[in-house]
Amino acid sequence: MFSNDDLRQILQTSRHNNETRQISGILLYKGGNVMQVLEGAPDSVLPLFAKISKDPRHKNVIILAEGPIRSREFDGWHMGFVNFDDMSEEDLEGYSSFLTEDGFDANFIKSSPTQAYVLLSNFKSVNNSM
Predict the structure, then answer these.
(1) Sequence spans of domains, the chain
(2) Which tens digits make up the pLDDT trace of 51-64?
(3) Label partner for 63 (CA 20 to 30 A): which of 20, 38, 69, 111?
(4) 4-126 has which CATH code?
(5) pLDDT tens digit sequence for 78-121
(6) Phi-psi region of 77 (alpha: psi -120 to 50; beta: other; left: phi over 0)
(7) Residue 116: helix, strand or coil by DSSP?
(8) Among positive and negative, which fits the CA dihedral 32, 61, 22, 27?
């Protein structure tokens, strides 16, 4: 679990570093679990992902999708963020069953990555002010 201060520090550092590296994306947090999108040039994104994967605070890292994209989904967002611990189900556009009380249901996400994408896209469309 991350405290609110931990999350603020992570976001501040991420946003600064991502702007410098021209990386965009979003980070979703719930109950100590993180779902993240990273967009940018492979020579920027791949080393960052390798660093994230080796961070001892992260366990069971799963890649849902990777590869070239036609255009960025989160262009201009150096790191959008939502803490689902601070929201009720009614507040969550695109709420899905993979957001369990214990965090993200990794098995469901692996079997249906489209659900994760739908949630991320819905969050972007209703929160375009990041």
Answers:
(1) 4-126
(2) 999 988 888 888 87
(3) 20
(4) 3.30.70.100
(5) 888 877 676 555 554 544 444 555 555 566 556 666 666 666 66
(6) beta
(7) helix
(8) negative
